[in-house]
Amino acid sequence: MIIKPDKKMQIPFGALHLGNTARQLISAALDQGLLSCGKLVQEFEEKFAAVNNVKYAVAVSSGTDADILALAVMHDLGADRGDEVIIPALSFIATGNAVLHAGFTPVFVDIDRKTLNIDPQKIEAAVTKKTRGIMPVHLMGKPADMDAISALAKKYNLYIAEDAAEAHGAKYRGRSAGSIGSTGAFSTYVAHIISTVEGGVITTNDPQIAEILRSLRSHGRNCVCSTCVMNSGEVYCAKRFGNPDVEDIRFTFDRIGYSCKMNEMEAAVGLDNIESYDSILSRRYANLKKGMEIIRQFPEHIYTITEEAHEKIGPHALPIILREHSPLTRKELIDHLNAFYIDSRTLFSSMPTQCAGFAWLGHKPGSFPEAEYIGERAIHIGVHQNITSGHLSYFYDALAALFNRV
Ligand SMILES: Cc1ncc(COP(=O)(O)O)c(C=O)c1O
To answer: Rounded to an integer, what distance in angstroms lies between the CA atom of residue 364 and that of residue 354?
Structure first.
């Protein structure tokens, strides 16, 4: 059978879930005129923490801000500006940017091409006297090797800030990704499983870290309790004005802060997404598993990540990696999928050697061969809740049309 591109079968990369709950909450917030970080954000934080099996969640305006704040906490824990944070060479660029924006120096470690995550065998060689933290990334929802990372962190007294931006719903030895290190940083941008349109959340089990995070997202102010920094509509707050030594504790600043609060309309969308979380997650997971099976039908040309017994992959997207001996280029693969209305994204780049913004750090091309390989030969496509089994068989046919003719 010769398959033809069919616009009706197009597969967009992401799909935002927007239901009645979001519409009703947004409309009520508009009527009351209470739109900046307030009660809905607080409710969203509580529910996000419960879904991820942690005690605290602090909502911010992007996943990048979540990464930055998670790292900036280290200044309160004794780190100096310029100290080092170990990160994988391959990630979405936000991971590398966040280390610099938080005031630290990124130290890159190559990845394992099979898992797409930081290679645990290569981390120890990157530890120096200035290393204070490590930010493992659970790329494409596949958990990083947290046993090895936790053992190294213990040995060298390192802070672990998990970049769980893509790892909603992922489990590592039964524990939620983002709940294993000191903090977990999630993105709630539209392409992610729980979305607030734009946004991010930092999770932690440590009450002191949660307080520091609330201060950091609001200019570093002293006023940190979970309610009084919120725009709740109440005029008088005893904690804010009842201190005999200061006139208004909200304008006392304890640390270098940021300005990245989530707003009420974003939280309303997030609450709606949490309401449908279980069904969205299971549909996405089924699509991911089916997509992985499809990739395995073309072993000569492509491979994808695998799910091991100790983990559950968070169904963020489906990675497709061209094998070394496949005659196809990534551009040919992308163009072919585009012709079939199947949206794809490249699978990021080696930040130190393939991203111009990091050139000043002086890393030579070839220093991170595994990350660079993925940066040249890999893409990912969506597995979102609106993708049906019909779309997936169309995807299979589109791949067969390409691979059976090369
Ligand atoms: C691994 C990783 N870290 C951080 C981010 C940043 O999230 P945002 O786009 O919400 O700033 C992303 C974005 O998807 C990501 O994939």
So the answer is: 10
Mean predicted confidence (pLDDT) in 66-80 = 98
The answer to whether the beta carbons of residues 65 and 261 sit under 8 Å apart is no
Element housing 60 (H / E): strand 56-60
Say if ligand 1 is within 6 A of residue 67 CB. yes
Question: At 10, is the pLDDT very low, low, confident or very high (cuts 50, 70, 90)?
Answer: very high
pTM for the model = 0.96
CATH class of 277-403: alpha beta
According to CATH, the topology of domain 20-274 is Aspartate Aminotransferase; domain 2 (3.40.640)
Q: Encode pLDDT of 316-331 as tens digits.
A: 999 999 999 999 999 9
- 93: CA distance to ligand 1 center in Å? 8
Domain ranges of the chain: 20-274, 277-403
E strand segments, 302-406: 302-303, 311-312, 317-322, 344-346, 349-350, 378-382
User: Is the distance from the beta carbon of residue 137 to the nearest atom of ligand 1 less than 6 Å?
Assistant: yes
Which is the closest atom of ligand 1 to the Cα of 137?
1
Q: What is the mean pLDDT of residues 237-242?
A: 78
20-274 and 277-403 share one fold: no
pLDDT at 264 over 80: yes
With a 6 Å cutoff on the Cβ, whether 166 touches ligand 1 is yes
**Whether residue 351 has its Cβ less than 6 Å from ligand 1:** no
Whether residue 264 has its Cβ less than 6 Å from ligand 1: no
